[in-house]
Design a protein that fits this description.
The structure holds 2 protein chains of 2 kinds. By secondary structure, chain A is of the alpha/beta class. Chain A has a domain at 4-260: Amidase signature (AS) enzymes. Chain A has 15 helices and 11 strands. In chain A, the strands form 2 sheets. In chain A, strands 4-6-5-10-11-9-7-8 form an 8-stranded mixed sheet, sandwiched between helices. In chain A, strands 1-3-2 form a 3-stranded mixed sheet, with helices on both faces. In chain B, strands 1, 2, 6, 7, 10, 11, 12, 13 and 14 form a 9-stranded mixed sheet that branches. Chain B has a 3-stranded antiparallel sheet with strand order 5-4-15, with no helix packed on it. In chain B, strands 3-16 form a two-stranded antiparallel sheet. In chain B, helix 3 (234-253) links the parallel strand 12 and strand 13 (261-266). Classes of the chains: A alpha/beta, B alpha+beta. The A-B interface holds A 82-83, 89, 91, 96, 99, 101-103, 105, 206-211, 213-215, 241-245, 321-322, 324-325, 327-329, 331, 333-335, 346-347, 350, 370, 373-375, 378, 382 and B 49, 52-61, 88, 90, 92-94, 97-100, 154, 156, 283, 285-287, 290-293.
């Protein structure tokens, strides 16, 4: 008998539909894996009953001959940035510890409507701010991967969706939600040998997702195959009148339109992404990717994205600026943590609550954001960064005149040991150097696993598409997936 | 330029005034959430997840609020910006759950417009004057703190959080309290005509921030201004300006300087006091709200807004004068408020229909009735009057009888009194209570004959040239008929008989 927890979204859904196994069996198997993996610290809370209840309903619906949803019988992990009705939602912060929403985010509701169930709320970098999952109030997530040097150094699962990436790689769930503001789906996917796609800005409703940087935040699926990502994205996406920035467009049938035949397609290779400091093995994997896409029939062309080097600085102005305002609501007045020292007035309560409730990285970004929006600095920073953002968007517009999809590394390095970069925020921010430009331009982008480096750690390749062209991204991703033949899994040590 | 002056020890000063009026948009739901805006609900009964700024909540613009702002802009002949944008104004306060107010700093929905205040000698406004309006933008209201509910704690009511406001910013074009008062009254009238704000200042639907500075008469430079916040009646606006101008002159003449600051008006004492100075001013860190797309208005939307506008005060006043032949005073008074002109126009139509004459022939009679006679009767009756009985039908019936000469002006008042108290039918009252005047020329001729016969000597004198005696004969005839004779008929019969 197959090990149910090795199966992906499609295999589980089809297996439940065909009666090869029941959804309840699947949920029980994953619940057991989750319960046995506390050493990874991937979950902030587990919700085995939620998963079982959804599974029962999927089994009953099947028995009654009712049509099955896209995700029927598939238990998933939910990044703890999505508000879930009656289940604690913290954004991995102390300030929201114990906060239980009376509402369900649009994306999670769509997943439940599609037949999925929830195994638990996944750990993340606090308020999605981080690239290593070391800023969570609830502790670091530990990657299931270890170097092949026989050592047991704890490695970063990436961030901010580090709970999601670790859980999927460790077979604690077949898929999970992620959110990506500057690379928070793609970078952890690359670090853990899984796939993940950030769709075009506006594809997935932001309603009910704890906001980090509103103009950049996008939800997306993370899973172990391109096809699983396509299925789950179909379930998550769609117009939502409750989100003014939501795209009012039909959701394409991405999963059933997948096609790895790239004949007639042009793949752009951005020359500015060959940066100093990029790992040799990453560059080598990029060359493999180029070869694989050629093999799939694509023509490879060199392109230029001349403003790439300004993307990271612009991102680290725009995102903190929005965050400094978005996080103002956590003030101890209406919900969440309240720290009220004896005899304190309102201002003292704000100060005490926010000092106790936010972690260092969150405070750092609130300070940066407050600074760049301040009188006298606004034009030099925020206005300038918004201009850069426009230029970056134009770079991509020009590039997509010459090609259909762009191939680049996802990250400049493979996963690193926890603690390596915590004292050097700039080094940490550099992790996002390849992922941030697509975020600033609102473009769909995904990471697919392409192999292991000499340390035995996974590497990812990134595909960036034009606006609305998730299909082009998924197709190119599938072509790489088929040729990379990535089947490695972390050896269980937890 | 008004001739309002503050007399100081060093000479005369003039005052420069600009007003920022916050008007609550008439809409069932808030600017960015579906919560109700109804006044008077229990505290925190009208708060949505968005208003309470729960994690992950997002604003969605209410099209009705946008429409009302655009219509208001059109009513002040302003430029409507087809592209505008919402900005966040960031500050921490317990009445502001989001930690920012969504407003429009950089790109307001309505640009440059204007408003006419009419000459009013009595009020100290010698000439018509155009007051410039710089902009109108839409923004969210904040909640209300309550400090009297608990000995040591403050409570907050979030019902008003997110209610749509229009901020209407004037140019510093006003130079007397009277002009400022007239501006607020006219603006209120326009808002009420358009229906974009109910103008209810007591319920806080309309309030003004008053910017005041003073300078020596003839000085081209503007002085440093202060801003007095949240003044909520026309009277208080005028009082705040008077006090603040006087205060500033006193400070300056004592060798002091005016500090740019925010002040509060105390209606109890009619004075203003400092709330916070510029040094304590917040840095609001305005930036475009990333949760909202720019607001783009298409031509059809604008055309629909324009088509939905009613006749506005200035146009109506002009029409009353030119087409209905009303005096300037009557026209101004009748167009000053929606209820007044609505009642007038209904009554005018009913009266014209009843009498069978065009409106312009009965307009002055109806105007005098509406502005003077009817309110006088109502006021004299006080609580005895039931306003529900003041129907257009009843009043038209009275005016009809009066126009036909069936009742006199005095009888009209008496009948209306009874109608207001009892709701009885005016014609029935006239009949039953004997409140009709005699127009039957036979009866009047008989009475005149009797009066002339009884006063033959005076008839002689009259015919001899003492024409002033005509009034005596009228009086005697009226007396003989217990005041119920139609004076017009009496006059003509007398004239004929006295030859």
């Amino acid at each position: 008998m197959t090990n149910l927890t090795d199966l992906g979204v499609k295999a589980i859904r089809d297996g439940v539909a065909s009666g090869a196994f029941s959804a309840v069996e699947v949920a029980e198997a994953f619940n057991a894996n989750v319960a046995a993996a506390s050493a990874l610290n991937a979950f902030i809370v587990t919700t085995p009953d939620h998963a079982l209840e959804a599974a029962k309903q999927a089994d009953e619906a099947r028995a009654a001959g009712k049509p099955a949803g896209l995700m029927a019988g598939v238990p998933i992990g939910m990044k703890d940035l999505f508000a879930t009705l009656g289940v604690q939602t913290t954004a991995a912060s102390h300030i929201l510890e114990g906060f239980t929403p009376q509402y369900e985010s649009t994306v999670s509701q769509k997943l439940w409507d599609a037949g999925a169930g929830m195994l638990g709320k996944l750990n993340l970098d606090q308020f999605a701010m981080g690239s290593s999952n070391e800023t969570s109030y609830f502790g670091n997530v530990i990657s299931p991967w270890r170097r092949n040097d026989g050592g047991n150094a704890a490695l970063a699962p990436g961030g901010s969706s580090g709970g999601s990436s670790a859980a999927i790689a460790a077979r604690l769930c077949p898929a999970a939600t992620g959110t990506d503001t500057g690379g928070s789906i793609r970078q952890p996917a690359a670090f853990t040998g899984i796939a993940g796609i950030k769709p075009t800005y506006g594809r997935c409703s932001r309603w009910g997702i704890v906001a980090f940087a509103s103009s950049l935040d996008q939800a997306g699926p993370m899973a172990r195959s391109v096809e699983d990502c396509a299925i789950m994205l179909e379930a998550m996406a769609g117009f939502d009148p409750k989100d003014s920035t939501s795209l009012d467009m039909p959701v394409p049938a991405w999963s059933t339109s997948l096609n790895a035949d790239l004949r007639g397609k042009k793949v752009g290779i951005p020359r500015e992404y060959r940066m100093d400091g990029t790992d040799e093995e990453i560059l080598k994997s990029w060359d493999h990717g180029i070869a694989w896409l050629k093999d799939a029939g694509a023509e490879v062309v060199e392109i230029s994205l001349p403003h790439t080097k300004y993307a990271l600085p612009a991102y680290y102005i725009v995102a903190p600026a929005e965050a400094s305002s978005n996080l103002a609501r956590y003030d101890g007045v209406r919900y969440g943590l309240r720290d009220l020292p004896d005899g304190a007035g309102l201002q003292d309560m704000y100060a005490a609550t926010r000092a106790a409730g936010f972690g260092d990285e969150v405070k750092r970004r609130i300070l940066i954001g407050t600074y760049v929006l301040s009188a006298g600095f606004y034009d030099a920073y925020y206005t300038q960064a918004m201009k850069v953002r426009t230029l970056i968007r134009r770079d991509f517009d020009a590039a997509f005149e010459k090609c259909d999809v762009i191939l680049a590394p996802t990250t400049p390095t493979a996963s690193f040991p926890l603690g390596d970069k915590v004292d050097d925020p700039l080094a940490m921010y550099l992790n996002d150097v390849f992922s941030v430009p697509a975020s600033l331009a609102g473009l769909p982008a995904m990471s697919v696993p392409c192999g292991l480096n000499k340390d035995g750690l996974p590497l990812g390749l990134q595909l960036i598409g034009n606006v609305f062209d998730e299909q082009g991204v998924l197709n190119a991703g599938l072509a790489i997936e088929q040729r990379a033949g990535f089947t490695a899994a972390p050896e269980r040590w937890w | 330029m008004s001739n309002y002056r503050i007399h100081g020890a060093t000479g005369d000063w003039e005052v420069v005034i600009g007003l920022e009026v916050h008007a609550q948009v008439t809409s069932k739901a808030k600017l960015f959430s579906g919560a109700s805006t109804e006044f008077g609900a229990e505290p925190n009964a009208q708060v949505s997840l968005v208003d309470a700024a729960m994690p992950g909540m997002l604003p969605v613009p209410n099209a009705e609020c946008v429409r009302q702002a655009v219509r208001t802009g059109m009513a002040i002949e302003a430029e409507i910006n087809k592209w505008s944008r919402f900005d966040r104004k960031n500050y921490f306060y317990a009445d502001l759950p989001q930690g920012y107010q969504i407003s429009q700093l950089y790109h307001p929905i309505v640009g440059e417009g204007k408003l006419l205040i009419e000459a009013d000698e009595k009020a100290g406004i010698p000439h018509d004057k155009i007051i410039g309006i710089e902009r109108i933008h839409i923004e969210q209201d904040a909640g209300k703190l309550m400090h009297d509910q608990h000995p040591t704690m403050s409570y907050v009511d979030l019902n008003r959080v997110g209610v749509a406001l229009m901020e209407i910013v004037s140019r510093p074009d006003m130079t007397s309290p009277a002009e400022a008062g007239a501006y607020v009254r006219k603006l209120r009238a326009i808002l009420r005509y358009v229906g974009s704000c109910d103008g209810n200042m007591e319920e806080g639907s309309m309030r003004a921030d008053v910017n005041v500075s003073v300078r020596k008469v003839g000085d081209p430079e503007l002085g440093t201004r202060t801003e007095t916040k949240n003044v909520n009646s026309v009277r208080f606006v005028m009082a705040a300006i008077e006090h603040e101008a006087r205060r500033q002159v006193d400070v300056l003449e004592d060798g002091g300087t005016i500090v740019q600051e925010t002040r509060l008006f105390d209606p109890g004492t009619g004075t203003t006091r400092s709330m916070r100075s510029k040094e304590d001013a917040h840095d609001y860190r305005y930036f475009p709200d990333p949760d909202l797309l720019p607001l783009e208005l298409d031509d059809q939307f604008l055309a629909d807004c324009r088509a939905s506008l009613p006749e506005l005060p200035d146009a109506k006043r002009k029409r009353y004068i030119e087409e209905l032949g009303l005096s300037e005073y009557n026209a101004r008074e009748l167009t000053a408020d929606v209820e007044v002109f609505a009642r007038f126009e209904t009554l005018l139509a009913a009266t014209a229909r009843g009498i069978g004459k065009p409106e312009n022939e009965v307009a002055t009679q109806v105007a005098n009735w509406s502005l003077s006679v009817a309110p006088g009767v109502m006021k004299a009756l006080g609580d005895e009057a039931n306003p529900a009985h003041a129907t257009a039908e009843a009043q038209a019936a009275i005016l009809d009888m009066q126009a036909k000469g069936e009742i006199s002006g005095g009888q009209a008042k008496e009948i209306y009194e009874i109608v207001l108290k009892t709701g009885r039918d005016p014609a029935e009252v006239a009949d039953t209570e004997g409140l009709k005047q005699q127009s039957d020329s036979g009866a009047i001729e008989a009475a005149v004959d009797a009066v002339l016969a009884a006063n033959a000597d005076k008839v002689e004198q009259y015919r001899g040239g003492k024409e002033a005696l005509f009034g005596f004969f009228v009086g005697q005839t009226m007396k003989a008929m217990q005041g119920k004779a139609n004076p017009g008929v009496v006059n003509s019969v007398l004239k004929a008989k006295l030859g």
